[in-house]
């Protein structure tokens, strides 16, 4: 940043000019230099380095006029006639309600799914001796 292009007196002005040119490139302006870069900001900086971006200092009065022109252009763009109107919203077909029996079946299946599998139905009852008995008996050798 220490080497500014000729004619640009400050880094701040350099950045402002590059930002304005990048906005123009984003809006569809064609690049003035051939570069391998694609990003608009990088292309704008390359154009400034090549001294291909014309610019000049403006007075406060000129700035106000330019600002009013930009505002008027934006307002005209907002109130411009629409070439391709927005299509009307699509109305969904009316869906017949599900019969009450079907609703109850769905509720039951959902409840069963939420409960999970029932493990108690297929279990065999195994009688094990109480813990006191196990502790008092001698451990038999295997």
Describe this structure in words.
With 142 residues, this protein is mainly alpha-helical. It has a domain of 61 residues: Eukaryotic RPB6 RNA polymerase subunit (Alpha-Beta Complex). 47% of the residues lie in helices and 0% in strands. The chain has 5 helices and no strands. Helix 1 crosses helix 2. The longest helix is centred in the middle third of the chain and has 19 residues. It is elongated. The N and C termini lie far apart (87 Å).
CATH class label of the domain at 1-61: Alpha Beta
Radius of gyration: 39 Å
SSE pattern, N- to C-terminal: HHHHH
Reported for the largest beta sheet, the result is:
none
As a percent range, the share of strand residues is under 5%
Count of runs of 4 or more consecutive helical residues? 5
* Strand runs, count: 0
Query: Judging from the principal axes of the Cα atoms, what is the shape?
Result: elongated
- Derived from helix and strand composition plus strand pairing, the structural class reads mainly alpha
What is the CATH T-level topology of the domain at 1-61? Eukaryotic RPB6 RNA polymerase subunit
Proper CATH architecture of the domain at 1-61: Alpha-Beta Complex
Helical percent range?
40-55%
Please mark out the parts with pLDDT under 50 across 5 or more consecutive residues, or reply none.
none
End-to-end gap: 87 Å
On the 0 to 100 scale, the average pLDDT is: 81
């Amino acid at each position: 940043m220490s080497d500014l292009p000729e004619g640009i007196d400050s880094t701040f002005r350099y950045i402002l000019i590059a930002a304005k040119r990048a906005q123009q490139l984003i809006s569809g302006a064609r690049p003035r230099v051939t570069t391998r870069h694609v990003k608009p900001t990088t292309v704008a900086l390359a154009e400034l380095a090549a001294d291909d971006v014309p610019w000049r200092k403006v007075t406060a009065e000129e700035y106000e006029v330019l600002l009013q022109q930009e505002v008027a252009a934006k307002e005209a763009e907002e109130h411009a006639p629409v070439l391709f109107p927005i299509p009307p919203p699509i109305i969904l077909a009316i869906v017949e309600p599900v019969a009450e029996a079907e609703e109850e079946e769905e509720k039951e299946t959902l409840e069963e799914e939420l409960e999970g599998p029932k493990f108690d139905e297929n279990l065999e009852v195994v009688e094990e001796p109480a813990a006191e008995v196990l502790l008092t008996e001698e451990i038999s050798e295997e």
